[in-house]
Amino acid sequence: MTKPLHEQIALPDWYGPLAKRGLAVALGIEIQQLSRERVVATMPVDDRTRQPFGLLHGGASIALAETVASFGAVMHIDRDRFVAVGLEINGNHLRAKTDGTLRATAVPVHVGRSTQVWTVEIADEEGRLVCVSRCTLAIVPKP
Q1: Closest listed residue to residue 122, CA positions, set 53, 56, 50
Q2: β-bridge mates for residue 121, sequence order
Q3: Distance CA 86, CA 88 (A)
Q4: Most buried among 14, 76, 86, 135, using CB within 10 Å?
Q5: What residue spans of the chain are helical by DSSP H?
Q6: Measuring CA to CA, which residue among 127, 56, 42 is closest to residue 91?
Q7: What is the CATH number of domain 15-141?
Q8: What is the distance between the alpha carbons of residues 13 and 60, in angstroms, rounded to a whole number?
Q9: Is 30 exposed, middle or buried (0-12, 13-18, 19+ CB in 10 A)?
Q10: Residue 133: phi, psi to the nearest 5?
Q11: Catalytic residues, which ones?
Q12: What are phi and psi of 61, to 5 degrees?
């Protein structure tokens, strides 16, 4: 049985300050689940995430995908010494969306010392795929 769309679970303490800044805040992205094996987040389809013709903007879907993949990657690294940064991302937009809430689920495909690869499925409220994505992240020393 899947969890309700807006059910939140306890998130790590280090996540709190990060949740209050950046593109994810501007787009209304909210992390629902964060573990080494799975990251789940929601994003509204509203004026922040639609293109001028009223449809979900493909870039918003990609931003959602990279957000969940990046947070997943961070779960596997020493956050005091390293950061995860996007190296490559692709997305196939499968279904148009004009309103509602999306749910992105990311799972790792490869977790290495210097790179990670995550797959992301973005679905609507009925569980229909809206976008599928693969994101490769580089693990680099903290600046």
Answers
A1: 56
A2: 105, 132
A3: 6
A4: 135
A5: 15-18, 23-27, 58-74
A6: 56
A7: 3.10.129.10
A8: 27
A9: middle
A10: -145, 155
A11: 66
A12: -60, -40
Please count the residues of the chain: 143
User: What was the pLDDT predicted at 3?
Assistant: 45
Token pair for 95: 């279904």
Helix (H) or strand (E) holding 44: strand 39-45
> What's the pLDDT tens digit per position in 43-82?
999 999 999 999 999 999 999 999 999 999 999 999 999 9
Residue with tokens 């493909």: 58
CA 100 vs. chain centroid, Å, equals 17
84 burial level (CB within 10 Å; 0-12, 13-18, 19+): buried
